[in-house]
Amino acid sequence: RIIFALAIMFTLGALLPTPALAQEEFGEQVNTSIDSAVSFLWTRQLDTGGWEAFHGGSENEGLGTSALIVYALLESGVSPQDARMLRAFEYLKAGQATKVYSAGMRAVAFQVANEQTNNKYLSEVRKDVDQIRQAQRNGAYGYDTSPSAGWDNSNTQYAVLAAWYGGMNDRIDIPAQYWNDLQRHWQTAQKPDGGWAYNTSDVLGYYAGVTQPTMTVGGIASLYICEDNIPLRSRPDRTAIERCEGVVMDPHLVNGLAWMDRNFTADPTQTGYIYGEFQQQWAFYYLYGVERAG
Predict the structure, then answer these.
(1) How far apart are CA 60 and CA 50, in angstroms?
(2) What residue ranges in 149-191 does DSSP mark as E strands?
(3) Model pTM?
């Protein structure tokens, strides 16, 4: 139910009303759903200030889960000064993030809080973003916050998300080379059909090196983020931009968007997942990726 609540908060707020629904009525429905999800999540907060990991996972997974929930609550209008939120911040600060997902989402949550607290959590964001930056290997990431030979596009897209939010803070510097490395990874990892796979493994199942909708929306969002952060001097279309002749769109983005044109679905049951009982969870993960890409 926590996953479902998070899905409501991340995706409904980004949807546009259809012509058949009056905007006011649609907006009321969205707000009611988000308010219900917020209320539910507060009922699941633990005495520690955090939340339990999905499926009874490790303490570090609980840290990542809690960071994701804090981020969702803040983006849903909860004040960072709320007493329950302050307890959550203390829980996040005390945790040791040894996984990319956990460190990445914690950086995002603290940066959203910074925007309303005059950079109260600047040191926490800087610590996690620095840790994320140092964990990359050839522009990609595995599960651990120490560089490793293994990588996957799921951890990589959440590392990109953390760096993006960190870079929004004018007191945190992200070197141009970092964005160039990330962009090169996503470009070279793209499949011939324009989509992205989890990685290049030949293991059967979801982790096979075949295009997945979750990884494709992550690839599109990540390439847009890289484009936004690469300085003008490093762009191949620098001259055209300086002459006001327009921006030359990365052909990898063009191909990724074309894949989405051909394959997009908003129905969580039709997104190609194979894990049976986990299908709905991957579907909500996919919808959050759609929201970011959009």
Answers:
(1) 11
(2) none
(3) 0.87
Q: Judging by beta carbons within 10 Å of its beta carbon (0-12, 13-18, 19+), is residue 207 exposed, middle or buried?
A: middle
Q: What is the largest CA-CA distance in the chain?
A: 59
Q: Structure tokens of 279? A: 């299908």
User: What DSSP string runs through 226-272?
Assistant: HHHHS-GGG-TTHHHHHTT------HHHHHHHHHHHHH----GGGS-
The residues with which 99 forms a beta bridge, in sequence order, are 144
Alpha carbons 212 and 199: distance in angstroms, whole number: 10
Which amino acid, residue 199? N
Q: What is the pLDDT of residues 63-102, one digit of tens each?
A: 999 999 999 999 999 999 999 999 999 999 999 999 999 9
Q: What is the spatial distance between Cα 127 and Cα 153, in angstroms, rounded to a whole number? A: 23
Predicted local confidence at residue 278, as pLDDT: 44
Rounded CA-CA distance 283/154 in Å is 14
End-to-end CA distance of the chain: 25
Q: Which two tokens stand for residue 96?
A: 């040791």
